[in-house]
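Example record for the data management plan.
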Amino acid sequence: MQDPEQSDTITGGLIDLLRGRARRMRWTAYGFIVAIIGVILAAIVLYQYVPTLVTAESLAREEARLEALQKRLEKLDEDILQGEQSRAALKADIIERIRQQETRIFDPVQRVEGTLRSVHFIDQAVGWAVGEGGTILATGDGGRTWQAQQSGTGERLYAVQFVDQAVGWAVGRSGAILATSDGGQTWQAQKSPTGVNLWSVQFLDQAVGWAVGYGGIILATTDGGQNWQAQRAPIDEHLHSVQFIDQANGWAVGNSGTILATTDGGQNWQAQEAPTSEDLRSVQFVN
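Corresponding structural encoding:
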């Protein structure tokens, strides 16, 4: 039979052993809980502060980008300013050059009353202009100086054309037709078969030419204007301009979008359809 004292001693030892293990387990649990709390706190800190750090970095990048953009804009402003200054300097230089080379018109031109209606040059130097009151001006230096020529008429002149430096014609009000064979030193009136205004004249050479004007009038000559004959037009609209590319093919234009064409030197004129009803003042063909 076991001794009661010995049994109590064993029981007490077991209890102490169990209590020690319980204490160790409790401290282990405490440590685990503390670790969990630490993880939770770390997560909270990261959740609160990491976005702030990321945003700060983004702002720093944006500030750097904006600063670079600002520098580019400042450089662009400088380039624009330099360009404007260069253009201003160029403009001032051009204006000064124009002033230095400005065309000087001599006194008789200053006294001309009214409007100059037409101008014609045969090259870069030699040309003529005509207008109110029978005015005829001539230049031999590209228009730097002009000299008045005596037209012998007081009628308004609407058009002038030369075929070389000597031979030319001018036409105007009330059927006026003038001709010169010496560059305009002298002008002679030619016999006109009409008393209506003639607004355009064109010659191919010293012999063959046409003139057009009021009410669809078309005149033609084959002898330099010694004789003019009326050609029949299919309209009665005013004709403001005529142009031929050879002795057969020509065109005339005028009021209300009128366009006439011929392929036989004006023996027959046909109306061409125009995409406008506005008045046409000039026509030009190159071939």
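Summary line stored alongside the record: Helices lie at 4-100, 107-110.
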